[in-house]
Amino acid sequence: MKELRVRLGMTQKDLAEQMATTQQTVARWETGKTQLNVEQIKDLCLTLKCTVEELLGWKIDVEEWRTSPFAIADAETRYGTLRIKTTVGSRQYPIDEKARESILRQLKELHNLRRNNTSRPWLYCWSLDNKILLINPQYVRTIELIGDDVEEMPGYYHPEIYRALDDWDKGEVSGKLKKECDAIIAEMGDQEAVRMASYVRVTYDDGEDEWNFLDEETATTFFGLEAATFDVPQCSFAEVEEEGYYRARYANLDRVAVMEVPSDRYHRLTAPEEA
Fold this sequence. Notes:
This protein is of the alpha+beta class.
């Protein structure tokens, strides 16, 4: 904790003021003499601009993702902007170095994969604004990767913000995290705030957007695509909404331009059960 605080040029007094506590309490936190609760850990992550893993010094195992109260996030090295121009418009996303390297690797491999005429490989990556991106190359005109030193990258929230918004209906969000979420909801409205944490956005080839709640069944659909490295057979349908016996909706992937899947929720729903 001390290293993270010093990195931001903060004193113990500064951190105490932002955490609404005393300097003595911060000192005890840093020496490990006082144990942190979940709310304090989340609020410290917001204040120190770090992940839970950076703060606590240990990694959350995949088997714990379903039950962990914390967001699923790696410490990232920021890169800049992924800008995609498609036949139905342009979008841009904040990405890290790993996402940039993944996109470049996929673009280089794409011509080899296209030798298989029975399937059509999609591009995929993750962004810092809680999205897993599935991109149909058939509708892509240009892809740009722009470093943050050249052009300021799009804004995004702390991973714990997205996790809190996904859990908002449970009424368990508190502390500094709740105040930040309240401000976001006041600015963009309940619907938009919940959508970016819990809903899949499907954009079709005519530019129409469709929003579908990501539940366990539909998450399995995307997990299957991921397992196949998004090598999508022609004339494929993917289940994007499911309500048991009463309702199901399938998207014709040949007519889909882009899909945005909420990353934190997806990883929790598809994580293996604890033994």
